[in-house]
User: Fold these one by one.
Assistant:
Number 1:
Amino acid sequence: MQALLAASSTGVSDSAENISFPATFAFGTATSAYQIEGGWQEGGRGLSIWDAFAHAPGKVKTGETGDVAADHYHRWRSDVQLMAQMRLRYYRFSISWSRVLPNGYGAVNEEGVRFYSMLIDELIAHGIHPVVTLYHWDLPLVLQVEHDGWLSEATASAFVQYAAFCFARFGDRVKHWITLNEPAVHAVYGHARGEHAPGRRSRPNREPYVAGHHMLLAHAYTVARYRKEFATKQAGLISIALNSDWREPASESAADVLAAQRSMEFNLGWFADPLYTGDYPPSMRSRLGTRLPTFTAEQRGYIANSTDFFALQHYASMLVSARPESEPLPEGSFYADEAARYHSLPGARKNVLGWDVAPFGIYRLVKWVQRRYRPTGGIVITENGFPLREESAEEARYDLERICYLKQYLVQLARAMQEGVVVRGYFVWTLLDNFEWAEGTAARFGLLHVDFATQRRSAKGSAAFFARLSETHSFRYHAAECNATVPVNAAFSQEAMQLQLIINRTAELRAQSGRSTSASVRSAIMARASRLVTLADMQARHTAENGLFRATRSWLAKAAKMRTFDAAAADKAFGEPSTAAAEPLRRAAQDLEEEVRQIENELAGSLAGGGEIGVGEAEMAVAPMIGEDEELPGVVPGVVPAEEDATREFGRLQTAVIEVL
């Protein structure tokens, strides 16, 4: 019996992984001006489109604005001290365009310039490298009013002048630049959905592409200017930050695989393809026709190869299927051209914003980027983070969900790096709880909790974790600490073969004795069948969390099949006897009942610790597996074929059953 229990142990493996990154790997945090600065009418700052949008009733769910936000404008010095205490070496922040050029062009606000210059100096004094984003969605309001913002190439020209001004004033100390943050999100949410500034939605299948086109041109001309006038002397690097979910095919059908690829191209490829090939993806060109702007030959020369590294931002993943022609979206919808449907990932946890948490997504995304673009300078994850609704500093101290999110995504990033993907940095969104756009301050991403009533900062558990990571470039990860699923396919295999063996022996005993199966044996069989359902469901969740959706469907099918193995089926299978058993056989049946009871008791003891069960990787490598097409336990005479190959694991049970028979 002990041999059997050792072979079928379902406890979680005690092994933990040590995840490490190169000493040169850049760990940092990220913020943006409108989300943390406040001081909206101080220091000569001009208005931005987000000032106007947030003050319009109903635009922000909580009714809040960024007027004060995290008050970083007044607390920047102490915030830098907190960064130093966290041992950060890189800090990404954005410059408010309207704080240095209140109208977006023309007159300079020297007080605003001085604010950023002092911030940069303070960071460097504490050994922190500044990474500067020139535009994080807060367009000067004057440019929106005078030129319709990014719908005009005039705004792109104004951006180039603004960027050159920043290079001249700050480039002697700033060595890493981001031109624009998530232009695809800005184009769609600001010019199609109307949920972000400037809140346009009148031509949702045209304006986003015009705005995006001008943002790409602004980036391309800015990089050309930087490389011509500043890069050599200042020895800096420049890129543009692109956001993407991972889009996984909902099935293996050719239509769904094509839809998922098209979805990636309509989202990430929309901006990334021009940066590396000089033009938009062919799938977009063929579907959008003249609604998609074109680049001149000269513009293609500027935009192709206009990044020194691939700045990638990622939070969540989804399933994508082909949208049937019989279910078209309304004419004019931005999403109609993509011809895809979005689905939640089976078994995935969701964060407070409803996004699916799927660590495998960042692994597949960076692999996709590496294969498609082979970016010079590698990939830098410039944003990744996890929101929670933390009502108090005390509650926020124990943000285990955020720590686990960061750990699990970093585990997958390290895995991709081990397989040859060049990743050079990782920035957490975000340093401080902030004004999270249309969500207000309800969704908190920060490593530091902010009490917005008092502006008091408090460190969360994730701040301590990230401080250690920044210093050591490594951490320990155990699936159990994050309530992550573990593989239980081996446990399922062992349990299934044991159930099959008991069923066969019970049926054989009944055939010899003519006696019906007792209630206790039948109950033990049903309990074991129920446990198989649980194991199959757990394995389905584990495969889903790892993006193995074909296996997920197979395990869900196994669970569904086992659910049909109910008491009525058992009654039908074992039936009622027509003759009474002889006394020796009656005693043998009682012995069998006792044997099954012992098995149940000892296995129950092994499960008493609660939580999810499974085996470690080393055990899984040699454990028996149930294949996708293998049959589940059923009532059949004789010995299961697997029994001969599992003598060591099941020998004790076989001997015990044979002896009582």
Note: The first strand starts at residue 17 and ends at 20.
Number 2:
Amino acid sequence: MRYMGRVFGTGFVFVLELFYTYSIYIGEETITLSQVVMSLFFLVIAWQFGKSYDNKTLQIKELQAAKSELDFILDNKNVAIWSWNEKENKTMSVSAGIEELYGYTRKEFSEDPSLWKKVLYPEDQHVIDSIRRNLLSGKTSYGEFRIVRKDGQIRWIQDFGTPLFNEEGKLWKTSGVAIDITEHRNAQEALEQRESQLHTLINAMPDFVCFKDGKGRWVTANPFGLSVFGLEGVDYEGKTDTELSEYVSFYKETLLYCQISDEETWRYGAITRCEETVPQPNGQTKVFDVIKVPLYYDNHERKGLLVLGRDITDRKKAEAHLEESKQRYKSLFEQHPDLVCAIDTKGRITQVNKAIEKVTGYTQEYFQKITPKALFPHHYAKKVMHYFNKAVMGQPSHYEIQMNHKEGHVIDLEVEHIPIVVNNSVEGVYAVVKDITAQKKNEEVIRRSEKLSVVGELAAGVAHEIRNPLTSIKGFIQMMQANQVGNDRYFQIMLSELDRINFIVSELLILSKPQVLSFKEKRITPIIEEVITLLDTQAIMNNIKITAKMDSGLPPVRCEENQIKQVFINVLKNAIEAMPSGGEISVHIKETSSNRILIRVIDQGEGIPENIIKKLGEPFYTTKENGTGLGLMVSYKIIEDHQGTIHITSKVNEGTTIDVHLPTAALTSSEN
């Protein structure tokens, strides 16, 4: 205890005084003033002796504590105490920790005063020079530098140096403490490096990054964040959004809104996320996905607000485009005039458009409850599943089939299976089903029309050849009848049979007479498209691709639709037959400067020699082995009836080009 000596000394004297006083009291003697003063004097003396004892005891304890601390420092391997004799310019003493720090022994430092300089890292010489200047000028000095240990390791040293002066006030020696701070510096450098990397990363980020203090004042922001509000070059630190809005009038309202939005996050008390729109000087806008992170002290006071914003303008545009594409797909799917349905890989119909009712008579709800093969006659079910399975394997398929309409009649269908591929895997099949019942009927009408046309041409020729001799025979029989008597019955029979032959010839001539045609204004493009659709299957079977390039907004022509179809059926058939090795047939439709529509058909066939081109269109002239020579003749006649022209050019082994010119409806009306 700090007052133990004083308490013990005064206590001992006080006890003695009590005994002395008591003995006087027992002897019935009187206590004098001098006796009281003497007692107090002895008490003071005892107090002083006790105080001296206490001070010495305290000094001993402090010395022991200092010695313990000194021993700890001297024995600490990470700390070295040194002293340098400035007068003799040599090491006076160094603690044992020097060996751990420098790798050299104390003896080596004592014997070689230059060793201190030798172990110094060359680039840190300026630090030692600064320390020495301060010490020599009588100032306490501090510095951090690197040394190279004896084993080659590099260590960071923190050194505290103090100048010591003699009684004359002259610098006698310098002493100091060297501490190994390598781990601290490494950790600090690693932290600085991470902070630098983080700083670099934040600055390089294409995202808005801003940190505000608890009062909404900007602390730091990356370059992109500054560019968002046009704050490049503005001293933003310590300013609120309201204050910064005065620097950029264009973004003033946006910054003021940001401050309101920040306050909403503080009130919410947790991370918030929202989309904020920032107007641009060019009239456009940018959309940011903004995350705000509020930070609090332990006492729940506001510490800071981290604001992160990512420019999602392109993503929003992509989403809008995707949504638009979905709507377009949905519109294409639902509004497609043909029956379109989606089928999963197990053959179940998952989606079907409303054209199902127009094509089959069945409702969408009914159609989705059945499998495709249930709609077709039994003998077609195997065919349907065969092509469906091909599509499931990734092979598109195209075929024709018949099915019973809900009302009972049979309809002809053209079916195309298209695999639904998602991430390189077939997830289902689209079936596009077109009702070609009317097309089949049109094909039959065209075939009959072509046959009738051929028969008519033949009938005209035959009738002409028969009627002339019939007229001669009938005249001679009548002359013989006038000169002979008795054979009237035979003459009547012969004349009757001749009249019968003449009647048959007249019936044949009816086939060759021009039909009463009904010309109407029609768009040529749909007519040609129907012909291409009609012959596309035949072309595909012959490894031929028919491509069409048709100008939009073409004026109508006055025509008989079926006859025009017949012409181009003949033309395209001839082109297909002229390409046994396959290839491409191109169809171009455009308006010429002379108010005419040009339909040009180009094939890649074998070509026609020039001397033969002149004969094309003549009756019964053909270059085909099984041809009749009537197709082009009929085509020429039809185009001629439509006030049009046909022009054929060809190069052997390169192909043939057929140009058909038809007048527009306006031109036809003006000419008429």
Note: The CA atoms of residues 136 and 163 lie 7 Å apart.
Number 3:
Amino acid sequence: NFGKMKTFMKNLLAKIQIGPERSHIGVIQFSDQTQEEFQLNKYFTQNEISDSIDRMSLINRNTLTGNALTSIDEYFTPAKGARAMAKKFLILITDGEAQDPVRDPAKALRDKGVVIFSVGVYGANRTQLEEISGDGSLVFQVEKFDDLKTIESKLIFRVCALHDCKNIKVLDIVFVLDHSGSINTEEQESMMDLTIHLVKKADVGSARVRIGALKYSEYPEVLFHLGKYSNRSAVIEHLRRRRDTGGRTFTARALDHTNIMFTEEHGSRIQQNVKQMLIIITDGESDDRNQLNDTALKLRNKGIDIYAVGIGKANQLELEAMAGNKNNTFHVDNFNKLKDLYLPLQERMCTIALEPCDIQEADMVFFFDGSDMVSHSEFVTMTTFVSDLIDNFNLQNQRIKIGLAQFGSGFPKIIELKNSLTIPKLKTQIQTITKSNGFPRIDLALKKVKVMFDPSSGGRRNAGVLQTLVVITSRDPYYNVADEVKVLRNLGICVLVWGIGDVHKEQLLPMTGDSRKIITLKDFNTLTDVGIKKRMVREICQSCGTTNCFMDIVVGFDISTHLLGQPLFYGHPLLESYLPSILEDITSIGRVSCGAGTEVQVNVAFKVNSITAKFQLYQRAIFDSLRQVNVDGPTHLNAQFLQSLWETFNDRAKSHGQVLLIFSDGLGGESEIMLEDQSDRLRAAGLDALLVVSLNTTAHDEFSSFEFGKGFDYRTHLTIGMRELGKMLSQYL
């Protein structure tokens, strides 16, 4: 197993670009002590690292993971080869339960900017792994060491995604570039390389990222305004043009000139609440430094975020005067070091950029927990979070309307949909809300919140406008909410639930009827994470109001008693008898309209043995061909089985509905935790439903912890031979 772990490490590193100016790798082994194999600046080639891993010897003894996390802290310091500007990752691999506390040492590392991925093999404790990573999406778990190879690509993909924000979505950005006499041709090229790198990371387009640029020395010259170019290549081609440098450095004059660039007339979307960003790059002191502070302050007060990059003799106090604080400044010794700023500046652009939302019209009510279960500081964190979210929605012309209410001792309506507040006043009112306190009777609150969507309150459901209710709660519902939710659903209100703290997804499910519309977070502090905010915007914009006119269904068979060469239906006459009518029923949803008179087209693929399944419209002849299939042997419903079914969708359009339908004779000794984890991953990847029919004649609930897609019928257990089983499955689809 130790050898398999070493192979896993070498396979991961083979997918990473390693070198003095690229990724640096270190390896530490731990048991009840830590043992340095090599630190970050020891080796810079794949072969050297691979050879060193091969020479590792197993320590044995106990599993003191918390102690190891504390010891690892020093390995992310310059003394051990870490670089100040480099992103920091720790990949922890363990097969045992930690015998010491892990929460605090892991948090200390994460607080210093280290992203921790936890890889657990069979005996590892899932709860501890999540405590270490601080985020369940950074945890990977497999049943045995042989299965480590199945997560290699996924793990590296997650590392790369977090290392490098690939696509900056919605932003207006102006580059202000020093072209004074102190800059030679080679240095100018380094400055343009930085600018072009940032442009390449942006989704340039009139509705996404708009880019403008200005060069200056004694006088400013606009190279191009915001919105001039609607694609990356045109922006890059213009920036690549050779330009003369010369003259003195009048930085305040250049900044003052950008005022005109941040106007609607010249392409700015500042009135549409799109974030405005200015990056200035200079290598010297300003000749009009006395005007610098006031000029920059005027821009910042207008809502423009300024990031100041200084090179060589640039004055740090001037950089801070422009940016407004030290955190928004960067200073390097020479132009060659500008490449060290690629990632930090790119991350700032990612952070400040908005998440795109294609919803054109919506009535959106945020309904949050103001009960005694939420502390004052947690309540402030929650209201600040909601205030920040609003920046992502186009509230111009009242196309999207925002309402707010809270629940606790009563039901205070804070902001009705018919409000006419400006965005700054709306945000101010949210941030000054007084907590209601009391017991969280969410059942009573849901009964009352429907009035928020009434026409008299500004709701537009009669005009066909999307109705969305976002519930933020710190507790599971104490009383039954089914009747209240049914009323909301009948009114066409889409309910999303965000549970924070001591909540359980299965208890929140009656509020949505769809587990994909539930997000659970460990604590209120996670609301301050920019990534969480962007994820929540995506959930709001994508979870309600979408329809699928194509559905792909993969049908799998899990029969653990099969022997090599036996017919597929051997020993299961009920399956052979009922399957044709079930397939007829589930494909009959093609006669249901999915909007605008379009019928749903259902394609089915049957996954048996290792044969590549083919999607096709169902006909009786397909079932007849299944009767001729002989199996390769027994199958087992585990995480790998689910993954093999999921891979059948690889070449299908992501816009299609995607459903797994499995006929199973039971779990046997398979790990439910692994199945739940895999189910969550598939759901996050886009699977719409995972439905399991028991081949045992008595109903079993062993599949309920990882099934999803039954809506409000989630407590019903499906069994072969059940009356109208096909119609029930059809209803879920």
Note: The chain has four domains: 2-163, 171-352, 362-543, 550-732.
